[in-house]
Design brief:
The chain is α+β, with helices and mostly antiparallel strands and 203 residues long. The protein has one domain (5-23, 34-199): Nuclear Transport Factor 2, Chain: A (Roll). 40% of the residues lie in helices and 18% in strands. It is built from six helices and six strands, in the order αααααββββββα. Strand 4 (152-161) and strand 5 form a beta hairpin. Helix 4 packs across helix 6 (177-192).
Amino acid sequence: MAMPIFWLCLVFGIYVAPINAEETEGVKTPPGEAALPTPEVILQSGITALTEQFRRSSDPKDILAFLDKEIARNFDFTHMGRLAAGYYWNSLDESQRATFEQQFRQMFFQSLARQISNLGNPRIEFYPARPGSQPNEITVSARVMQPQGIPILMDFRFYRSEQGWKVFDVMADGSSAVLYYRHFYNDLVARYGLNALLNSANP
């Protein structure tokens, strides 16, 4: 399955405009968490590291290995998988959920690696972080300025876990990656049954 390139290939883009510290004043850091990296720092660190990797090698296999080793820790694939599976998550036992999560992560990063390998050099301007829909959520918005084409507004949605801030969804012009997957899995189950959830890494 090929995911929409409009958000996927730019999840951790190749150029980022700097964010000033004062731009995040509107988002309060809970007491005792000052040492945790902020969503802005996490995002920019990922972009910087990916830029360096891209310069070393743009081979999809190398990018996939890099994403799995260096970028995956910034995502909560358990949470993302649960949201993507939707209603069907409750029909899976613990072992099946672990299998589904692993395949979901594999499919996500395989598609991302393929798209990154074909990237050009888009310019990405970040906006101040703002509170999300829940008390423990923060959204960082970015405008992707493509060499040709209409600019894309992206929202990186983070939530505060026990391990720090984690990405749980990416949106482009209001279209959610998690909801995209939910529609995909709903269609998959409707066509092939619940077991298809556990064999969806290479649909």
